[in-house]
Structures are given as C-alpha cells and as structure tokens.
C-alpha cells in the first residue's frame, strides 16, 4: 500500500486509533439494552402485580400459621424439637394454599379419583379423560360463575370512575336490576327467547333509572354523588325487604322472605349441562368488557365522559355540559350494574332473597379500581377475586382456615397494587420511581464542592495579592507607586479638567488665572 493510500485510510472518519466516532463494542450495546429492558420491567405494572401477590400471600401465611392450633402447640417446644415445629408450619401453609388452588382452579385429587374409578370399571381413552377433566375443572367453572356478575358490575363502575365520579351505589343499582328482572321473570309468561331478553332489558333499565336518580341530583342540585349513591343503596335494600313481604313478590310462599323461582323461559341457559352452574351470562360479561372498551375509547359520548373527568372547566369551554354528562355517566353506569343484577338472578340465584346482592356491589368497586378501570384489567381482577372467594370457601371447609383470612389477603393485594412505590421500595427498586435522582444529588454535591473549592482558591489569591501590595507599600515608606511606575513607567492618568463656568475664578495658582492677570 502506498503512503497516500495509507494517509487516506488513516484520515477516514471512524477509522484509526485517534478517531472519536468508533461504535461501542457489542458487549456494551448488549449490556445497555439489557439494562433498559430491566428498567422497563421494573417500571411496569406486571412486576408490581406479581410482587403484590407475593407479599400478600406471605403475610397471609403468617396469619394462617397463627390461626392453626397444632402449629401453636408445636411452637411451644420449638427449642426442644425445632424440626417438628418447622414441619408443622410448612404443612399448614402448603395444605391451605393447595386447598385454595383446588377450590378455585383445578381439583387434582378429584381428577385422579374419577380417572382411577373409571379405569377400574374397564374404561379407557376419552371415556376416562373427559369425565376426569370435568371433575377436575369443576372449581374453575365455579370461579367463572362467580366472576360473571362481578365483571359486568365492575364495567359499570369503571365508566363512572373514568368520568371523574366516584359511584358507591353498586349495591343499590344491582338490587334494582335484580328486582326488575326477577319480577318480570316469575310474573309474566312470554316466549322462550323474548322472555329472557325482556328480563335482561328490564334489569338494565331499572339499574339505569336508579343510577340516573343520583345523576339528576348531581346535575340539577350539585349533590355529592358519594352521599346520594350510598343513601340509594340503603333505600334499595330496605325496598327489597319490604317487597319480599308483599304478595306481589312472595306469591304463595309468604312464610319466608323469598320470591318464586323465575320461569324456565327466563333462565339463562347452562353451558356445561345440569351438573355445572356456569351459564350464558359469561358471554354477557365478555360483551360488557368490549362495550366498556368501545364506549370509552371509540365513541363520542365516551370522549365527553373522559373530557369531563379530566378537566370539567376545559370541557365546558369546549361546549360539553358537565351537568348533562354527569347524569349520563351515572345512568350508563347504573344500567351496566343493573344488567349484572339481572344476570345474577336469572343465571345463578333463580329467585329473589334478602341477600341476593351479597357483596357484589362493593367488590365491583375494588375490582374496577384494581383493574385501573380498563377492560382487560377488570376481567383479570374479577377472575382473581372470584378465585379467592371460591378457593377460600373450599380452604375453610377442608383445612379449617377461617374465611376471613382470605378477605385479608384480598385487601392486602389491593393495598400493595394501589401503592406501587411501596412495592418497589420493599424489593429494593426505590430509585425506579425517581430515575436519576441519585445522579442529580451527586452532581449537585460535586458542583457545591467545586464552588466551595473555587471560593477558597479565589480568597487565597485575594489574600496573597493584598499581602504583596502591603509589602511593597512598606518598602517605599510613603506609599508611592512601586514597580513599573517607580522605574519610569507610564504615570497615572491625570484627572479631567473641570468644566468652564461663569462664576468666580478658580483658586490662585491655576494657569488660566495667571494668564488673565497678565493680559490686564
């Protein structure tokens, strides 16, 4: 290679040892990408949700151990035989959570028992597999059954929450929908499909009207929706108690506060046969999630809801009426919750009782908040709460663990998920919520230290200059200029001449005065 080619090659950008445009090595790039991925995961909601479950179940494990009588007895002689105490603690926790899994998702012993009995009877293949799977998946079908009205009611709550209104009237709206759907179901005799549709529409309309009452009070008189919806809950509850004591709702069975069963044409069809309680309301729950997504993300009225929830004054300036929007929000939310009550009566309960609403109305508030008022989050949170409910009942019956502990676990899960900084602090990722805070603190400290050092250095320099000037003054004895000026350098500049005035002459000795006297 010639020297010219060598020079050209060495001066090319990005080539040569002295170039500053060299790309980073692959190891550094991979490390940077990995760190960014880890930071993204740490900032995401998935890690918070997973660790919330971990912390909630850890605290629940401690409570389970405390509630177990055998474990408490074994801890009494822990220092004598620690292995027995640790074994009892482990068995208590693992058996409790295994029972919860069996009651909520899949019953492994039930599956094995049915499969073994069918094989002993001579069965094989699908004749064994399908019945065994049906026995094993029965807990999952119960979880889906419990989650169905909960998801629908949570979708209604999410509408009001995203519009900036805190709707606490889920129980009253659900009771109104259940009463209307149940009354139409056991009073009228209509064709098979029409009867079911009319019952669902009656429940939806009743829930919308009940929610619209709070919306009207909010829009017309400015009443706080929290207070009005809570009061409407009690009104609906006692109205149900009164109705179940009247002939219109009790029928021939007036000795007990229950209504007649709804007609066969008004019942939601079962999906897996008479051996399971799972009904077609599951499709309505999925449809409610889709309606929530379309309403709040793709419709004009949903845009109005979100605009008023974000900034009512800006929405009013844009031509959106906050009062009318508040009425529509609570009416739509009440309609969805009323549909949940109708599904619960027509699919699961089949009749009206004093406890028909249960805790669905208040659980829907928690599920909506836990799911961040989004369709996917609501579905997952609804399945979670339903699984904890069904699994907790089986855990109580099989292991003797109080059902109240399951509710404590539910509350802990919600508490941790509602406080992501707390979860990240517990797992040592506190800096994720304040990225760059430590580096900014270090930079501020370095800047402060540098400023202090500069101030000290400048002070020392000023002191040194003052000392040298004083030394030179003492050497001359008169304070005359020293250095270059004493050696014949440039003299100090003389002051400017005073301006001419018409008044008396300046003091004697001035050049101008002597010249005037000589002329005279």
Keywords:
520 residues, mainly alpha, 22 helices, globular, disordered N terminus, disordered C terminus, membrane
Task: Note down, in words, how this protein is organized.
The protein has 520 residues and is mostly helical. It has a domain at 144-373. Helices cover 71% and strands 0% of the residues. The chain has 22 helices and no strands. It has helices at residues 3-11, 26-43, 45-67, 69-76, 82-104, 108-120, 126-136, 138-162, 170-187, 192-221, 225-243, 247-250, 281-298, 300-310, 312-317, 322-349, 360-370, 375-399, 403-417, 420-426, 437-476, 511-519. It is globular. It starts with a helix and ends with a helix. The relative contact order is 0.11. Mean pLDDT is 81; it is low at 1-20, 477-494 and 499-520.
Q: What structural category arises from helix and sheet content?
A: mainly alpha
> Overall mean pLDDT score?
81
User: DSSP strand (E) fraction?
Assistant: under 5%
- C-alpha-based Rg, rounded: 41 Å
**What's the number of helices?**
22
What is the H/E string?
HHHHHHHHHHHHHHHHHHHHHH
Query: How is the quaternary structure best described?
Result: single chain
The parts where pLDDT drops under 50 for at least 5 residues are 1-20, 477-494, 499-520
Q: Shape from CA axes?
A: globular
| Biggest sheet descriptor | none
Alpha-carbon distance between the two ends: 99 Å
């Amino acid at each position: 290679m010639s020297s010219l080619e060598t020079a050209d090659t060495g001066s090319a950008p990005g080539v040569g040892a002295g170039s500053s445009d060299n790309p980073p090595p692959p190891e550094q790039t991979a490390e940077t990408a990995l760190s960014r991925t880890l930071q993204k995961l740490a900032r995401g909601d998935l890690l918070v949700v997973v660790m919330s479950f971990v912390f909630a179940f850890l605290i629940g494990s401690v409570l389970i151990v405390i509630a177990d009588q055998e474990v408490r007895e074994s801890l009494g002689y822990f220092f004598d035989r620690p292995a027995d105490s640790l074994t009892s603690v482990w068995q208590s926790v693992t058996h409790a959570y295994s029972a919860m899994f069996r009651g909520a998702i899949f019953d492994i012993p039930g599956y094995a028992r049915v499969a073994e009995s069918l094989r002993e009877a001579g069965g094989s293949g699908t004749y064994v597999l399908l019945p065994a799977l049906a026995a094993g998946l029965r807990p999952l079908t119960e979880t889906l059954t419990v989650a169905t009205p909960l998801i629908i009611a949570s979708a209604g709550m999410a509408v009001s929450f995203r519009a900036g209104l805190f709707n606490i009237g889920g129980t009253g709206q659900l009771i109104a929908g259940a009463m209307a759907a149940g009354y139409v179901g056991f009073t009228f005799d209509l064709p098979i499909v029409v009867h079911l549709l009319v019952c669902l529409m009656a429940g939806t309309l009743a829930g919308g009207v009940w929610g619209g009452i709070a919306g009207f009070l909010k829009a017309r008189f400015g009443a706080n929706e929290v207070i009005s919806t809570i009061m409407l809950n009690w009104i609906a509850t006692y109205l149900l108690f009164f109705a179940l004591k009247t002939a219109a709702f009790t029928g021939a069975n007036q000795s007990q506060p229950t209504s007649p069963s709804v007609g066969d044409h008004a019942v939601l069809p079962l999906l897996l046969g008479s051996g399971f309680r799972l009904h077609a309301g599951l499709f309505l729950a999925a449809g409610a999630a889709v309606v929530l997504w379309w309403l709040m993300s793709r419709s004009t009225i949903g845009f109005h809801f979100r605009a008023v929830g974000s900034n009512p004054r800006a929405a009013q300036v844009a031509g959106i009426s906050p009062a009318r929007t508040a009425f529509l929000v609570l009416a739509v939310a009440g309609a969805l919750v009323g549909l949940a009550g109708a599904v619960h009566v027509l699919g699961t309960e089949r009749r009206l009782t004093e406890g028909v609403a249960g805790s669905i109305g208040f659980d829907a508030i928690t599920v909506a908040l836990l799911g961040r008022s989004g369709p996917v989050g609501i579905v997952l949170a609804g399945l979670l709460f339903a699984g904890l409910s069904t699994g907790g009942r089986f855990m109580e019956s099989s292991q003797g663990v109080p059902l109240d502990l399951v509710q404590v676990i539910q509350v802990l899960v919600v508490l941790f998920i509602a406080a992501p900084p707390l979860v990240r602090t517990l797992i040592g990722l506190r800096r994720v919520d304040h990225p760059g805070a430590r580096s900014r603190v270090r930079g501020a400290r370095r800047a402060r230290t540098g400023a202090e050092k500069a101030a000290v250095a400048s002070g020392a320099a000023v002191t040194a200059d003052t000392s040298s000037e004083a030394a030179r003054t003492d050497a001359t004895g008169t304070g005359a200029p020293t250095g270059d000026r004493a050696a014949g350098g440039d003299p100090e500049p003389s002051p400017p001449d005073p301006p001419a005035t018409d008044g008396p002459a300046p003091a004697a000795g001035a050049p101008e005065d002597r010249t005037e006297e000589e002329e005279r």
